[in-house]
Amino acid sequence: MEVLVADEYGFCFGVERAVEMVEDALAEGAQVRTLGPLIHNTQEINRLEAEGVSAMTVPLEADGGITAVIRAHGVTPQVQRELESRAARVIDATCPFVTKVQKLASRAAANERDVVLVGDPNHPEMIGVVGYAPENTYVVRDASEVAALPPLRKPLVVSQTTLKLKTFLDAAEAVRAKTSEAPEVVNTICSATRDRQDAARALAGFVDAFYVIGGKHSSNSVKLLGVCQEQCERSQLIETDLEINPEDLRDVQRVGVTAGASTPKWLIDQVVEKLRSIGARMENETALAG
Ligand code: SF4
What spacing in Å lies between the alpha carbon of 208 and ligand 1's midpoint? Predict the structure, then answer.
């Protein structure tokens, strides 16, 4: 049985960077607390907890000489200031792609322009961006919400980094139709999600079974599973190698592996290792039977 891993899988740039920043702080002996869970992966959170990392829910908890970590989603300037006033040190692990959206919003507001931010208003990344231009930003989920906005001044249209391109383009078009001044449209979607889906799609047609490694509640992992299932019916979402049933692989010649953007490499390596050992065992059994 051949084990084929998708070309793009696992940690995205921003998550990998945030975890590395936490590891570096731990190596320096810091007592690290993240504002909210650092990533959406139970096994990685458990590993970090074992190393002494804990999560806090509000900046008020950032006392006692701790090192506070802002995760990849970013926060509002107000929350950042509060952390800075309480914690011994603040590590800003905001993903640079998110920082770009924050800066665009802040600059537009300074120039008395309105910002239309397309995405989920309840997502932490969006709440953080709105904080950079609270008086000037309108959040819309999609094009259908644009008509209800008040008249817009020299609008800038930007997006949540994980949004679908079509949703963003449709909303930008709706803003264009609504305003007499042509809006400035900046596509701030990050390619991490799409790259993982494209790589999974490219592999799914060549394999008999596919394992997607990721949290059952991780939306990017669930979407990745959907992409795999389009071409490979025997696609499964698993959190760890313990969920692999060797019996499911009896007649499998090729098995594919991919992982969501919050899945650490060590979990992926464990799955690949397990699949290879199942493959080797099946080969031995076949040889003995022959
Ligand atoms: S998905 Fe993209 S924007 Fe979000 S943390 Fe990862 S690299 Fe950064």
Answer: 31
